[in-house]
Specification:
magnesium ion binding, globular, alpha+beta, 60s Ribosomal Protein L30, Chain: A, thiamine biosynthesis, 4-stranded mixed β-sheet, Phosphoribosyl-aminoimidazole Synthetase, Chain A, domain 2
């Protein structure tokens, strides 16, 4: 089970396409189940709106039910009320007893992997907020689409049961979310930033390699999986993920101690980075 809230002006722009808002809301919740290796089954939705808006609701329903039907998730209830635009979803699912992926099973020596590519969501958000612009309209649209319409890694999470020692989804940035595994498991991490998987679109958006890597480390709302794997299971990762069409990249290793150390091309770097802070001003 997982619950997430999305608030207009914080998690999405008030004028955002409701189709995309719905996809993002449901995908973010399903991603939590993916990180547990679970199969999603039901969802409830609490919707708060300032005024009834049939056009907005039609778009929202289109995006919501398209993703729900794809993952065979049933809407079983919820609530509506008047107020500032916000959404709260609770998803429920199944996982075989004793097989759930958690954050507390990692050990020193385990390898750190991420699925997909990182950084595109932050790039899309920067474009939406007008913090940066690009001349290529197709590139801008691709990155904005990736910000709003990530695909939860449900099948990948299921495939990693019995292989990964710990897992979570990247919602607040790799450097922030990986810290939860480190804290719960009592280990430290070394990240090889030159091994981070970056899309061609991100490299075009940010040609400076260091800045692109920093985006990849801090980009929130990626909804890719970060997971750790013991040495004995490394050979099983590619085979396990092959059937669901998801690529995983090894980006570092766990060590004794605390915190995260960054290396770039074999040299330690002192980048003062942090992921998304829900209560930052």
């Amino acid at each position: 089970m997982s619950t997430d809230s999305l608030v207009a002006g914080t998690h999405f722009l008030p004028e955002a396409d409701p189709v995309r808002v719905a996809h993002k809301a449901l995908a973010s919740n399903l991603s939590d189940l993916a990180a547990m290796g679970a199969t999603p089954a039901w969802v409830s939705l609490a919707l708060t709106m300032p005024e009834p808006d049939e056009t907005w609701l039609a778009g929202f329903c289109q995006g919501f039910f398209a993703l729900a039907e794809y993952y065979n998730v049933q809407l079983i209830g919820g609530d509506t009320t008047k107020g500032p635009l916000s959404l709260t979803l609770t998803v429920q699912g199944f996982v075989p007893q004793g097989k759930a992926l958690t954050r507390c099973g990692a050990q020193s020596g385990d390898w750190i992997y991420v699925t997909g590519t990182l950084g595109d969501s932050a790039a899309g958000l920067a474009l939406l907020l007008g913090q940066k612009s690009v001349d290529d309209a197709a590139l801008a649209e691709t990155l904005i689409e990736r910000h709003y319409c990530a695909q939860p890694r449900i099948l990948a999470g299921q495939a990693l049961r019995g292989i990964a020692s710990a897992a979570l989804d990247i919602s607040d940035g790799l450097v922030s979310d990986l810290g939860h595994i480190l804290k719960r498991s009592g280990v430290a991490a070394v990240i090889e930033v030159d091994k981070l998987p970056l899309s061609e679109e991100l490299r075009r958006f940010e040609p400076d390699a260091e800045k692109a890597s920093q985006l990849a480390l801090t980009s929130g709302e990626e909804y890719e999986l970060c997971f750790t794997v013991p040495e004995v299971n490394r050979g099983a990762v590619e085979t396990a993920l092959a059937h669901c069409g998801v690529k995983a990249t090894c980006v570092g290793q766990l060590r004794p101690g605390t915190g995260i150390t960054l290396f770039n091309a074999g040299e330690a770097v002192d980048w003062q980075l942090q992921g998304y802070d829900h209560f930052a001003e």
